[in-house]
Write a structure and sequence with these properties.
The complex is a heterodimer of chains A (83) and B (272).
Chain A: E1 9-12, H1 17-22, E2 26-28, E3 34-36, E4 39-43, E5 57-62, E6 65-69, H2 72-81
Antiparallel strand pairs in A: 2-3, 3-4, 5-6
Chain B: H1 2-15, E1 25-29, E2 37-40, E3 45-49, H2 55-70, E4 75-78, H3 79-93, H4 95-104, H5 110-127, H6 132-158, H7 161-173, H8 180-193, E5 197-200, H9 206-222, E6 227-233, H10 235-251, E7 256-262, E8 265-271
Parallel strand pairs in B: 1-3, 5-6
Antiparallel strand pairs in B: 2-3, 6-8, 7-8
Helix pairs in contact in B: 1-2, 3-5, 5-6, 9-10
The chains are: A alpha+beta (83), B alpha/beta (272).
Chain lengths: 83, 272
């Protein structure tokens, strides 16, 4: 693995999810999905084309804005991108 | 890393704290008892306490964070998910798991391979005595992404059946004209059947084989399922299966058996 899990990483507390999303111009709609603040009808998507709820949100990585879900398969896929 | 410079600059300009060198990790926290900024010189861990930042400083921090991701390739990740990432990495770093996973890489479909990796992690947590709620949550992650096939892979992995699949592959490989497609013809029904399967490999006694087959037939029947699949590898195991089936035929008059054989591998469908 060329990139360790220490370098190039910013971590954040789970209770700051909404605040972190606000850094990227995102907010959460009434159904709990992450959406564009300027266009709340547009939900953000993972590379698999899935909507992301605030509960499911694990983070963001580069590549436009790649949203990461907190489930096990998504984190395994993320691990591969760090290799 | 350039984004660390940005954060160091933010801390210096807006919070009047000068950190010269050595920032290795950045953690954005929300802790009413912690200082607005703390830096551990030993570990290089910089903590910025969002909750203690004045509103105008938060507005200054936001673009620094988004630039770190958009412009400087930083990964922004919630703490618990990062811990899980590290645990998955640890699971996959043992020699046994590396050998096991590298065997299946490229031989089974990519989605199955990821489901298998996830299943290995679930298996490890189960063996470590994780709470049932955690195991169920992890299994649900696999089910949500990969549906029934993912759940089957998880069940088969927990039961050690994937080690049997390695034996199947190696056995099939001994014969001329072998291809991965031929292996997938055996593999796919097994992962589709999941819990409805009895897999006979290794040095099991005839009595053990009989008990498992009868036990699963009885369980299936209880839930209105009148089918069971049996896969066996090796001459002695095939003989054991045939002996058990012979006895079952006299015990269950309605039992129907469909058999297919590929070299030293037998697959049966029992309908009862």
């Amino acid at each position: 693995m060329s990139r360790s899990l220490q370098e190039g990483i910013i971590t954040f507390d789970a209770n700051l999810k909404s605040e972190i999303l606000s850094c990227f111009g995102k907010t959460v709609d009434d159904s709990g999905y992450i959406v564009e603040r300027d266009d709340p009808s547009q939900r953000v998507l993972t590379p698999n084309g899935e909507d992301v709820t605030l509960d499911e949100f694990a983070g963001i990585r580069k590549g436009s804005e790649i949203f990461i879900k907190a489930d096990l398969p998504s984190l395994i896929e993320l691990l591969d991108t760090l290799e | 890393m350039a984004f660390l410079d940005g954060l160091r600059e933010f801390v210096k300009v807006h919070l009047n704290i000068n950190i010269q060198v050595g920032v290795k990790t950045v953690n954005i926290i929300a802790d009413p008892r912690a200082d607005v900024v703390s830096f551990d010189e030993t570990t290089g861990a910089l903590k910025i306490n969002w909750e203690k930042l004045p509103e105008d400083k938060i507005e200054e921090l936001k673009p620094v964070i988004s630039d770190a991701v958009r412009e400087h390739d930083a990964l922004l990740i919630e703490n618990r998910s990062k811990e899980l990432l590290e645990e998955i990495k640890l699971t996959e770093s043992s020699k046994e798991e590396r050998v096991f996973l590298s065997f299946f890489k490229g031989k089974i479909p990519d989605d199955d391979y990821t489901a298998l990796r996830a299943s290995l992690y679930v298996k490890r947590r189960f063996e470590e005595g994780a709470q049932k709620e955690e195991i169920n949550r992890l299994k649900l992650d696999i089910l949500k992404r990969y549906s029934k096939r993912g759940r089957n892979i998880c069940d088969l992995c927990s039961a050690g059946y994937f080690k049997g699949l390695i034996k199947i592959y190696e056995e099939m490989q001994r014969y001329p004209g072998f291809s991965n497609e031929a292996f997938l013809e055996v593999y796919n029904p097994i992962v589709d059947e999941g819990n409805l399967t009895v897999f006979v490999s290794g040095g099991r006694t005839e009595e053990q084989v009989r008990r498992e087959i009868e036990g699963k037939m009885s369980r299936n029947r209880q839930y209105g399922i009148h089918v069971l699949y049996i896969h066996g590898i090796g001459k002695s195991n095939i003989e054991k299966i045939n002996m058990v089936i012979y006895d079952l035929k006299s015990k269950y008059s309605t039992l129907k058996i469909q058999t297919s054989e590929y070299q030293n591998i037998v697959s049966m469908k029992l309908t009862f």
